[in-house]
UniProtKB/TrEMBL annotation:
It comes from Lophiotrema nucula. InterPro entries: LigD_PE_domain (IPR014144). Residues 280-289 have a biased composition (Basic and acidic residues). Residues 299-309 have a biased composition (Polar residues). This is DNA polymerase ligase-domain-containing protein. Residues 1-42, 182-219, 253-309 are annotated as: Disordered. Pfam families: LigD_N.
Amino acid sequence: MDTPNSLVRDISPPAKRRRASKDTVSSRPEDDSKTSQASRIEPTLAAIEAGRAKIENHLAYFSEYLSKASRKTEEGFTRLPIKKFRKLYKTNSHEQGSHFVIHQHNHPIAGVHYDLRLQFSNSSSVSWSVPKGLPGNPNSKTLGRMAVETRVHNFWNHLIESASPNSGSLLIWDTGTYSVLPRKVAKDGPPSPQTTDDDDTDGEDMRAPAYNTDKRPENEKLIQAFQTRYIRLCLHGTRLPPNYTVTLRLPSANDVSKYNPDDPRPTSRRKRSATKGGPKAKEDFVDTHSDDDEDLQTRRNNAYPGSTNSIGSIHQRQWFMSLDMRSCGFVQGSTGKWGHDGKGGGFETFFVRGRDVERSVVTGRLAREVEEDEGVEDFVGRQGWVAIEL
């Protein structure tokens, strides 16, 4: 049976309509012949993603593919050279690896969203779909982000950039390694072994340990933090600023521990209800999977073939993500605003602006350029996505 991957759904997109060329200005590939050659690499990318073709060396295959699809970008745009891309993946290709990737997924049904995947074993990664992308403004009116748990993916999925009419486009927004920081503790006591709905990452009654004495591998710390439903995550990426740290927490009301994969699942749009401590702005989330179309074993295990759900991931649990201000290096002023500490801490505000603006940190491509390179000329994504810029 064909294997879905990276939030792929086997249904047709809306009625085809060519995107107006005046909306965007396409940059040209570094070498047009390279791009055409990339689309002819055998086996095809589509066959590998669908599970129709198996390869032994995913790193070699995708490195060659992405190298030939690379495009020139404006000076100043941060890129990860293919050589470093290969080294990053290779050095984490073991049981204690701590690799991460953030994919921008322009899906025909779910629309634009950003998939955060964290390696927790030699073969597997836990995954969240973040509809609005990662937060980059410490003084935003919308500090929280919804982060929806998805299927456990194969580690080699971290290498993918692709496009098809059914799945839309997928590009690497950022990639690197992660660290799991110690849980913050109350000034008058030890940390709780499990999160509560009242936990406040940057509350005045909380402090971070002076230093981290936990010498365990980062993936082991991730697995333990995942079980407590509270993760302090520092991402060492290519485009993300130094010391970029977020917290992921799962409110007890959202901790659905029992799910029967044989039961039908609703696929209609769902709006998150207001939850204490969560994002202030309501965000739409559309399940990009049709469970009726998925292999029963995949649903039972919540893991794609080749990966193993040993971390205990549960499909569709809604976590909340927010910036960890102090760990990022920000200090709070007398007005309540967060700013630089004067010692190099903090970072310049950034915004995630969606498919028409965001480029791959590896190939430099926009979403529509990934689609063009794969021959998906008439793709029409879901409209209405708006960046959070306040």
